Amino acid sequence: MSFRKVNIIVLVLAVVLFLLVLHHNFLGLSSLLRNEVSDSGIVGFQPIDFVPNVPQQAVDGRQEEIPVVIAASEDRLGGAIAAINSIQHNTRSNVMFYIVTLNGTADHLRSWLSGSTLKTIRYKIVNFDTKLLEGKVKEDPDQGESIKPLTFARFYLPILVPSAKKAIYMDDDVIVQGDILALYNTPLKPGHAAAFSEDCDSASTKVVIRGAGNQYNYIGYLDYKKERIRKLSMKASTCSFNPGVFVANLTEWKKQNITNQLEKWMKLNVEEGLYSRTLAGSTTTPPLLIVFYQQHSTIDPMWNVRHLGSSAGKRYSPQFVKAAKLLHWNGHFKPWGRTASYSDVWEKWYIPDPTGKFSLIRRHMEISI
Description:
CATH architecture of the domain at 66-199 and 241-256 and 298-348: Alpha-Beta Complex
Organism: Callorhinus ursinus
Subcellular location: Membrane
CATH topology of the domain at 66-199 and 241-256 and 298-348: Spore Coat Polysaccharide Biosynthesis Protein SpsA, Chain A
Protein name: Glycosyltransferase 8 domain-containing protein 1
Membrane topology: Single-pass type II membrane protein
Shape: globular
InterPro entries: Glyco_trans_8, Glycosyltrans_8_dom-fam, Nucleotide-diphossugar_trans
């Protein structure tokens, strides 16, 4: 009888041990699934961060999700944080932020978000694979700036946001003062894969410095001396557009193979030098101008009031700045830099880095003095 009891006890212990091992393995597998990078495409995904808490402004789960893609490089991380904060606080919509970074930035970004009032936002961190750009970009000593890989993230929207039919892309040097839902609802004409703000008729252009030259026309971005450009029969005087803020119809984007078209012109530029030698803006603009020539819709100009970073001086009246739906500090004078126009407007949305790694340059200078 005692022998049988021993067997039963041994059997019970074995079952308990088996269940403990099974439980441990299950937890290990769950952890693995949460933390492993898993993507068969050309862009590698960092661990995806879902924040289950409901934001302060209650979100209706039945609302359509609004994907907002924004790049966040280490040296400009404060810009992305301010942009995200301004969007979140000015809408009750169901926004999902797709924050595109390089390998070393994800942990810093995650710490910043979780250690601030932005811990309740819904977001995914996506790692951008720089191998994607091999053979498609080259350093130009005449431009004086090194290639910034994340500026090309906007070319790969369908891969960054694979399940969405529509998305918003915006640079990190913006502040949103309107409801992002209004921008998302921008109507796109049939057959158009994107809507941009044109330079010639924008609200910004009307109060910009006179004598801006060709920076608002195609000739400011493309070398019309090159035969390949001339063969496209694009008028050199055609108004350019700013790609720092746009709405994309991703269904149409995929249908037209926009990403492949953009890559084609990137490669051709490396081989033949098709961009203007006095490039009026970012190297991401010329291929977009070619691919979307007379094939894009327009967004409300007040959703991309730009040139705030073109100089340290103030171009606009306080009333105009207040009325703008989106302020864009494109140019060299960034609001987190040494000097910038309307930095007080931007700083209202900036959240100090709880890790202390990022600090405003001008504030650092003031403390030093």
